[in-house]
Specification:
Blueprint: E1 7-13, E2 29-34, E3 37-41, H1 47-56, E4 66-68, H2 74-77, H3 80-87, E5 92-94, H4 106-112, E6 116-118, E7 123-126, E8 129-136, E9 145-153, E10 157-162, H5 169-179, E11 185-191, H6 199-212, E12 216-220, H7 225-234, H8 240-243, E13 255-257
Parallel strand pairs: 3-4, 4-5, 5-6, 10-11, 11-12
Antiparallel strand pairs: 1-2, 1-13, 2-3, 7-8, 8-9, 9-10
Length: 258
């Protein structure tokens, strides 16, 4: 399998936006740049927020090489309709329950998006960038299928890029270890969905990150304040980048070069 040699992830939209000109909003969107390929990862809730923040970063959404939708919840898919004409012919990678009633403007989007690819199996979409087969949420309160992206970064290991981790972050880590046997997990980026988790569940994840020697944690969105605080306390080196920010999360307008 190929490797990525240069990787940058920029947070285009997230709850926190502590500095102008960026806008914050509930939801999540990333720009992934891997060896010159640009992948839009989710759209957040609102297209005007996504467009404004992208313009503030001098990024033209129409220049993406692919669009990846981790799952259909409206805080990840809500911005799609508003930008769909800019990206309608780009390869779209999504779960089998995309365009359901959980996805805003789904019927119209079916007509607009012309290059839809269902994530029915693990697939390398660019050299070293793999979309992982969808799985169902472990929590019936949030019924949805979800996928995520793994970048295999030369000399460092695997970068897990997550929307909400609805299949369970511990399960995701275990699954990645099976798929990429022998390759260490270097970083996890995105929403860990720990906002309603118990102290014991959060402590268990902290222990797992320590055990797996994961070097970087860039958590945000649905991770939750309590979990972010515990992660930063117990994993000061891994979370140094986000704990040095105003919000303590990988917030809107921030970028990380691996």
């Amino acid at each position: 399998m190929s490797k990525v040699t240069n990787l940058k992830i920029t947070c285009l939209s997230e709850e926190s936006a502590p500095r102008l000109p960026f806008w914050g909003a509930h939801g999540l969107s990333f720009l992934i740049e891997a060896d010159g390929k640009k992948i839009l990862f989710d759209t957040g809730s609102y297209s005007d927020v996504l467009s404004h923040n992208s313009q503030s970063l001098n990024f033209d959404l129409s220049t993406i090489d692919a669009f990846f939708l981790s799952h259909t919840h409206d805080d990840h898919s809500g911005g799609l309709f508003g930008i769909s004409n800019d990206i309608k012919d780009k390869p779209m990678y999504c779960t089998s329950d995309a365009f359901s009633d959980r996805m805003p403007e789904s019927e119209e989007l079916k007509k607009i998006m012309t290059n839809v690819n269902i994530i029915s199996h693990d697939k390398e979409i660019f050299p070293g960038v793999i979309v992982i087969k969808e799985e169902k949420s472990i929590n019936p309160k949030y019924p949805v299928n979800e996928s995520f992206i793994v970048a295999d970064l030369e000399g460092k290991g695997l970068i897990l890029i997550l929307g909400c981790s609805h299949p369970g972050i511990e399960h995701i880590i275990d699954r990645v270890k099976l798929i990429f046997e022998g390759i260490p997990i270097h970083a996890i980026v995105g929403g860990l969905h720990l906002k309603d988790s118990s102290d014991e569940e959060i402590a268990r994840l902290v222990s797992l990150i320590k055990k797996e020697k994961i070097q970087i944690v860039l958590a945000n969105h649905c991770t939750g304040f309590k979990a972010l605080k515990e992660l930063s306390t117990e994993l000061p080196e891994a979370t140094k980048f986000i704990t040095d920010t105003v919000t303590g999360s990988f917030h809107t307008g921030k970028e990380y070069i691996f």
